[in-house]
Amino acid sequence: MISFEQAMREIRQHAQQLATERVPLAEMCGRVLAEDVISSINLPGFDNSAMDGFALGAAHLQLPEGAVIPVQRLQLAGNAVFSLGENACQIMTGAAVPHGAVTVLPVEDVELIGSFESADGFSIRLKQNLVAQQNIRLAGEDVQSGELLCAAGSELNTSHVMLFASLGIDAVTVRKRIKAAVFCTGEELLIDNAVDLRSGQIRNSNGPYILAELHALGVDVVHYVVIPDQQDAYLQAVQAAEKNGCHLILSTGAVSVGVRDFVPSALAALNATIIFHKVRMRPAKPSLFAVLPSGALVFGLPGNPMSCAVGLRFFVQEAISGLQGLQSERAIAAVLQTPITKKIGWQLMQKARLSISAHGQAQVSLLPGQESFRIKPFVQANVWVQLPEVAEHLTEGELVYCYPIHSPGLLL
Ligand code: AMP
Ligand code: MG
Question: Probe ligand 1: pick from 184, 197, 202, max atoms within 8 Å of CB?
Fold first, then answer.
């Protein structure tokens, strides 16, 4: 039996980054960038006005408050740049600041005399002394040509769409999506929810949970079946998944020490290399990780719903991160509110509620009902709290590591 940390290291070592593909901006959110994005241009591309107002030259700077300046021209957003000379021009937000202009005075800060259309001409009266370099957005002030904007391995979101679009980037290179197969084992599982439960039967909660989680993680599930507790059914399902090019094959149940727990022997029959089977942790102790000759990664998750959830959240998610070229996750440290005594030599993952105190401190309370069959407290929990193997008595006020149950990236 290996430790949780060792299990995570083994998974990371065997999960090799997938190949890449080009995707348009509209499809890149949630994907992992596989190339450095370096700007080939400046942003803004040219000096432009930050306000609706008046572009004035160096000579105007000397004028006192109350001076009247004739306005010769209107510079709209989209108009080409020109030379201002000794003149003043009216300018709109985003319009190219004319050559020779040293400041832009907002329309609110002048008194208008006449209107631009009037035959008598149009002037402005200064309400204050001018200051140079006001309200001009300089070329390259936001992004410099040659600057690294986003490193390979970044998870892309809509903010990246805004930046890349402004740079004229239409498509990026990302890691291919993961193809997965999911099998739920168990004679006790009801296959058709429309049918009444027979004595001894239960509904399948792990299958829909895994499908929903994988969907949220951007993994394509191309096979999903509930199979009876027969090794042949599992073998056939795995072989079909391999043929279909699945990178990830997950099953639930039949991986412990029960008389029908055939997953380890079935994998041996497939010449899989078992990397680990059983981890010194609870829940999810019976978890199994193997690599098939095709290179597909196989996880045997335990059937108990919380064991399945922990195995998926930590082991499978670490494999997904590896396949996608993402870095390993960092935990959130929080102050433990509920003291607990545990057995040394076992790591516990506990359902818990993380909150922020009135003083802005992350604090976490362990929830009642930690047994691996209990699903109701899962809905109250927002993090898994990791209680290390070496710990025995954990006191109130101690720092513990927390892992968000959903969207790990959101809080960081
Ligand atoms: P196993 O790992 O197959 O020994 O199953 C352990 C426990 O998890 C048993 O109580 C099973 O009935 C239960 N279980 C197995 N698979 C599922 C599933 N897909 N949904 C809900 N419970 C399950
Ligand atoms: Mg079973």
Answer: 202
